[in-house]
Structure formats: structure tokens, C-alpha cells
Amino acid sequence: MSEKRTELSRLGEFGLIDRIQQQFSLQNETSLKGIGDDAAVISSGEESIVVSTDMLLEGVHFDLSYMPLQHLGYKAVAVNVSDIAAMNAKPEQIVISLGISNRFSLEAVDALYEGIRAACDSYKVDLVGGDTSSSVSGLIISITAIGRVAKDKVVERNGAKANDIICVTGDLGAAYVGLQVLEREKQVFLTNPEMQPDLEKYEYLVGRQLKPEARMDIVHDLAERNCVPTSMIDISDGLASELLHLSKNSKLGVKIFEDKVPIDHDTFETAIEFKIDPITCVLNGGEDYELLFTITPTDYEKLKNHPDIHFIGHMHENANQNVMITKQQTLVPITAQGWNHFKVE
Amino acid sequence: MSEKRTELSRLGEFGLIDRIQQQFSLQNETSLKGIGDDAAVISSGEESIVVSTDMLLEGVHFDLSYMPLQHLGYKAVAVNVSDIAAMNAKPEQIVISLGISNRFSLEAVDALYEGIRAACDSYKVDLVGGDTSSSVSGLIISITAIGRVAKDKVVERNGAKANDIICVTGDLGAAYVGLQVLEREKQVFLTNPEMQPDLEKYEYLVGRQLKPEARMDIVHDLAERNCVPTSMIDISDGLASELLHLSKNSKLGVKIFEDKVPIDHDTFETAIEFKIDPITCVLNGGEDYELLFTITPTDYEKLKNHPDIHFIGHMHENANQNVMITKQQTLVPITAQGWNHFKVE
Questions:
Q1: Chain B residues with CB inside 8 Å of A3's CB?
Q2: pTM for the full model?
Q3: Mutate to test the interface with B, among A121, A134, A141 (most CBs of B within 10 A)
Q4: Could you give the number of structural domains in chain B?
Q5: ipTM value for the complex
């Protein structure tokens, strides 16, 4: 065949998103912000409605051999709520499309919805609709979350200014290391099914992978302290990738300090056990679902005593210089491996 | 294993939706209407925002051997817009989640988005966000559509009163017959790849299957004539199934007349060619994406001259008597086969 064929892997996920974004323009005045942030922004009187969507596919985003269905249901909601949190908004509704094969029983679907319900309770969101159909292969969960925020409190990716302080919440890299643990135990089990996995030692790491929480608590804390970040994004693809999103959207450079980046003790030790540099897990891992945001220097006082917010660096004028100062005081460029889903293995 | 296993096919799609609906209650006051209509309804000041979601799976909802990707993109948007139309609302935004395998090239994805863009232009909706990831098997398209309507103009499934007139738009059964034609041509092609399909004769039917249109024109016409239906639903699963939804939600019976049901000449002739009763294609086929609605008898004058609205029967007090009067003046009960996606073949 002489038809031209370009592999998707040549563009990667972000290249494809850019391409789609260029092909579509906005025509309704209620469409305040389209493709290119954690969520779309739609005008609703004095408020903005933010909308985000995420699809989880069996065999790509989760492996049911170690992911219990309750946890999967919870996680599917949490990752969407995390996108709403990243807009500084409060999630209120979700709709769920589900593709399920005959392999799944009613009991399995009940378990999935049990997790979804637990997340709805925890984040105070309502399941208001959906679509259910059979799938010829695995399980597919597509969720759209809808949130709300006062018009002047929406935080996008592009508002950072030079000298703004870069903040992250919680600790990073744990979910990635947890995934390595689960994958190793799966291989052990496949080799010797009599062997019981000993996950107790890795409880925190495995929990971060299987049951991540969206940081709605941080959104509330920021509001309470009267602090509106200048830009924000949730950390789903690894810190490096998200920092570069802020850099690109704000047209500024980022500079962070390795010794300021929060890494849990278990994450650190287990990364070493796997012979991976812990900072690599943070930069290029993923699925932390923590928040990365920038604040004006004058807001530092409001947050400096918060036990779970860490100040890891600052924005600067040179958009082409995105760097980390290592513990050895060397300067390394920040590059995103991110996830290239389309990579031909 | 002694664990209990109940097959999903025992409940079917609607049984599963009922089950989920019972397990979830609404906690946010902005959630005006949850599961159980064409779209969810969310409060937004003087307006209501309606939200609907639909997932299309390769091998279940479409077959790429006869569905061109442009058409698929167009259809994926149209079926979602149709749900918004069924709420009497105007669609304004969509978000799209896409799962694509390495089998698809960039050119294929471009073709898909070309169709999506054509539909966005046609229905004046903005693509404002999405999620793209690789799939291990086929193509998956999940779309969520967001529409808007004045609070007092929202039309749900439950507002019909006894003696309200039952109306349908366009003609019915064509998409189902079109699918039979395409399936037959596919089999012919598989047997003898040299054989060129002759689809010209079936152009209308095949077009109804491959390129359905949402009836936004009817929503506009109703508004222009100052007519707000008392209940409305779009016809995606066959007329019988949708009539029973109106009956159940309005707690009334439906009575329709076979000779009033609009069937196109090509649909009729080709159904006979396939040895299927044309009215069966209408009642139990699907994918018409026409509107089924009820109006108060006093509104009949406003619509009686509309060339594309047909009056097929009326609502009555006995919720357990859902019937069709055949051309032979016999009375047959309306039962829904609908689609049981979970049926074990």
C-alpha cells in the first residue's frame, strides 16, 4: 500500500494533544478554557464549572491480578477528583462509562461500585449518570468529573510569574516504587503460586499505588489561608513532566533543589533495593496525585507552617532553562520521559 | 470455588442501571437529577446544565470494516448530542476520551478527528478536553456532552400526563435495516473479496446507520413554536424500549397505532427483502436517534403542520397496559427486547 502511515509513537501523547488542540477552536462564549489544562472551564454565572475526563484501561492502566476491584473503583474516581483539585475547584458530580466483558460477574461489578461509592462519599461527589456496555476484551472505566469554583479563584497552568515559589504536597515517587513491588510479587507468584507475597513491609508504597487520594484537603487549606496559587497541576505523570507543563504554559523556567523534594523513607530505601535512584522515581515515575503549584513570594508566610506543603524551588525568566540543583550542587536539566503510551515495545 | 457468581446477563443493562441507581443517593444540592434520564441535570443559576456520556467500543458498537473513521467520529458526537437534545437543551461542550492501539496510524486518528470536527461544526459544540491513551485491543471512544437550557424548559422522561399525545420525529427502523445490509455485504466480501459491494440502492439505509444526525433542528422548532414537551427521550434502543421508559417514568400506559408509525419506503421494502417484519425493525431495532416525546393535547395545534413530526398514539392511565393497535386492528403488547449487551451468545 502506498498510503502514508505515521506511527502515533512519533508524536507521543502530548504531541497528539497539541495536534488536536490546533485543529479545534472554541465557538461558544461559555467555553472559557478548552484543551490543555487539567480540566476545561465553562462559564456558569458568577461561578466557573470545570470538567475533566480520564479513561482507565485494563492491561494499560491497571492489572487486576493485584488491583482489587474496590480499590480500582476508588482510584478511578480519585484520579478525576485530583484534576478538579488542580483547578482549585470543588468536585460535585461524576458520570461513569463502563465497558465490561462477560468474564465479570455481578459480584465483581458490585465490588467496583463499592469502591466508587466510597470515593463519592469521601470526596462528596454525586454519581449522576453513565453508560454501561459489554466489552469484547477487558474492563474499561471512563469517568468525567464536574467541579465548581468562584470565577476569580480558578487556577490554571499558565499563571506563574518569575520568582514565584514552587510548592508540592505530600511526598513523591511512592506510587511508582509501589508498582515495582507489586510487579515483582506478581512474577514471584507466577513462578511459584505456593509462595505467599509478603507485602507488609511495603504497605505504604503499595497503598500509594492501589489507593491514591486526591488532595482536596489541600484545596480547602489553601482557601482557609486565603491563598490562591498562581498556577497548579496535579502530579500524575511524574514531577519532571508536570514542571515542564508549568514552564511551557507560563513561559518561564523552573529551578528546583533535589534536597527540598519530599521523598518518604520507605520510598527511598525501596528504590535503592530496586537499584533505582530515588529522585528518578520522583521525576519520571507517576501516579502520585499530589499537587504541584506556584505561589507569589508574599504568600509564603501563609503556608510556611503547613506540615504537608514543601517549597522546592522557584520560577525564573529563562523559559529554556528548566533545571534541578542536585545534592552535590550540580545542575541537571529537567527532561520529561513522561509516559509515551504509544511507544512500540 | 465456592464464591457466588451471578452472570450480568441475568440483570441486563437496564437491570444493572437500576441496581446502581439504588445504591447511590445525591448529596450536592446542585445535583438536580441523577441516573435514569438521557442526561443528568445540574443547577447553574437560572439555567440547568445537562450532562450525558456514551462509550463506543470497537467490535461492540461499530465495525471498522464498513465504518469509515470520519463517520465514526461524527456519529460518536451525534449520539451524545442526541441525548442533550432529548433534554430539550442546547449542546455546548464535549470532552473525549480515546483509547487507541498501535494498529492505528496518525492518519487514522486524523480521520477520526476530522469527523469529530465536522460534527462539532454542525452542532456548534466545542471540544474542550479529553484523555488519550493506548489500548491493548481495539478503538474506544468515550464522549461526555454538556448542554444548557433554561431551568423551566428542561424536559425529562417523567412528565407525561394521561391523554398526552405521543410524537416521533423522522422515520424509524432505517438504521437497523442499514446495519443488516452492511453485515450482508461484509459476508459477501469475506467470501469473495473480488466482489464490489453495490450499496447505491441502499444509500439511505446505510447512511442512517453510518451517519446519524441528532435532531437539534426539532429542539429549535419546538422552541420556535413555543411548545415544551411533557416528556422526551431519544430513540437509541428501538421504539418499544423507549416507549416503556416513558411509561415507567411517567407511571402511565402507552397506546400507539401501527399505521401512524413513520417507516420510510426503502426501510419497508428492504426489511421485507430480509424477511423481517418492518414494524419489528422499528420496535426492536435501534440507533434511529430520532426524538420520542409527549405533548399536551392543547399543543397539538402548534405542531400539526410540522412536516417531520408524527403523532402515533397517546398516554393513558393504566401503567401496565402498553400496547400497539396493529393495522389489522388487533392489540399487541409492547415489550422491549432492547439490547442485552451482556447476553452470553
A1: 107
A2: 0.92
A3: A134
A4: 2
A5: 0.91
